[in-house]
Recover the amino acids of this structure.
């Protein structure tokens, strides 16, 4: 499971670099599908990952307004900050029981920890697929989504 | 790992049902991004999954021309046929060593079985993200990519 997180983080970082080719206006421009834009997609996957993983370890939900981070530098800072925090507790999450029930701040249900991990992983890959279409729309080559051919460093 | 396969198959089947809303012409129409069209995307994820998984169990690569299956019924038939075959050997793949080295017909490299499984899973989720953008372009609601909230039956 941890390899999927490493994959998502590596692909996300490559998209950050890719974003340097576009102006902030292009990054913020409304686009059809998904959550409606390149930078907001990156914000959304970062926020969703952070919220769900914090819920697993019993931390409260931090609601962060997009408007405070709506530049490439801002989103990258948010991603780096959250990732540093996540790296501290993810090994523990992955090592312990997969069936733990998790309560969250944003609805009344209980979720199985293992389902949350699957959800967070699939969520980011899905949204990155949307970025790849928008990349072609602005006539740029998207970042490869291939899992094979990547080298992963241990997250520890 | 098997839950990601069940997830992909369930989402894929929901996209097949979704496709009934479109004409064959719309399904075959060239679209920007990915492999360039809705039906061809579904063909591509089916073909890639089947080829890599067959390689793991030492079966030869079956090269199937898209032109032979280029209707919704044709693609669905291909998906059902391949899935039936995959379901026979996937439990064995998932139960055995993850570090097995696999050779494939389409290049000279060796691949780690576990990497192939990650690759195949991420590959489909990524391409399905592209379908979701094209769905909005034709003003239809895409299939939900949410992992949470789904019920999975055992693949056995």
């Amino acid at each position: 499971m941890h390899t999927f997180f490493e994959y998502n983080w590596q692909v996300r970082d490559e998209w950050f670099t890719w974003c340097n080719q576009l102006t902030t206006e292009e990054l913020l421009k409304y686009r059809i599908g998904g959550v409606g834009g390149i930078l907001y997609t990156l914000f959304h996957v970062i926020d969703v990952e952070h919220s769900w993983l914090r819920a697993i370890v019993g931390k409260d939900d931090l609601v962060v307004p997009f408007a405070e981070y709506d530049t490439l530098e801002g989103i990258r800072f948010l991603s780096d900050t959250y990732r540093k925090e996540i790296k501290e507790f993810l090994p523990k999450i992955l090592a312990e029981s997969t069936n733990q029930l998790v309560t969250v701040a944003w609805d009344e249900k209980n979720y199985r920890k293992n389902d949350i991990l699957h959800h967070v992983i699939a969520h980011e890959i899905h949204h990155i697929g949307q970025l790849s279409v928008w990349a072609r729309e602005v006539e740029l080559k998207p970042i490869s989504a291939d899992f094979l051919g990547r080298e992963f460093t241990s997250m520890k």
